Amino acid sequence: MPVLGLVTIGSLIISVDQIEETIMKKIILWTALISVVTLFIGACAKRDDATVTATAVTCDRTASGSITIGSDTVSSSYLMDTPNTPETGCYAMTSTGFPTGTQSISQQRIITSSTSFVDYVGYFSDTACATGISYLYQKYSSLSVVGEVTGLSTLSGSRPSSAYKVTYKSDCATAKGEIDAGTEALNYQYSNTGVYLTTGTEQTFSTEVTQSTYNIWATADNGGVISFYNGDDSQTDYPSDWNNNDTNYVK
Questions:
Q1: Predicted confidence (pLDDT) per residue in 197-209, tens digit
Q2: DSSP states of 104-158 as a string?
Q3: How many CB atoms lie within 10 A of CB 12?
Q4: How many helices (H) and strands (E) does the chain have?
Q5: Where are the alpha helices (DSSP H) in the chain?
Q6: What is the pTM of this model?
Q7: DSSP conformational letter for 3
């Protein structure tokens, strides 16, 4: 007579509990395997999506619109302020922070709308900004002019005593390494973003972040030359004053 809870298979007598335990172990095993496979597929899909996003990004750098700073406006494009006459935006200098072989740099600020702008920097292997090493167009959006700050140092008359607090966010970038040294520097700069550039190929990619950048801006008409004063970018708070190393622009 069969005993409740036992199953007879030939000469073997196996308890129902043993069968259930075996089945449950297999279910758990297959569930774990399915979960791993699902995670793997999901990870691959995310990598594919990231790749599509990176290649689909557009990053307009066309001069358009204007930005109001107090009672003044800035528009079009500005060259980096250097001792050159006439101003070219090119400055012969070297630094350990530049790509290897840099002998000069060129910088420009382009106003692209009432809430966005692009900062360009190019590195060159000669002192006249003729032979390129690399270049970068970095776009910032979500610009907001917050309010005026006064009592700033004029640095012997080279800066205004007041400015306006501004915030903005990194948006996208277009970059190219024209030689290997330039490509290596760019890849190091963006090493934590998953962006990888190859020499000779211009690439546009997202640099969008939620973190705001804080700065102070001011403008002045200095005898027919419009100056655009730019403080030192900060990720934590507005600069408390001007700095001799600030990059200023003119047109």
A1: 999 999 999 999 9
A2: EEEEEEEEEETTEEEEEEEEESSTTS-SEEEEEEEEEEEEEEEEEE-----TTTT
A3: 7
A4: 2, 14
A5: 16-56, 180-189
A6: 0.77
A7: P
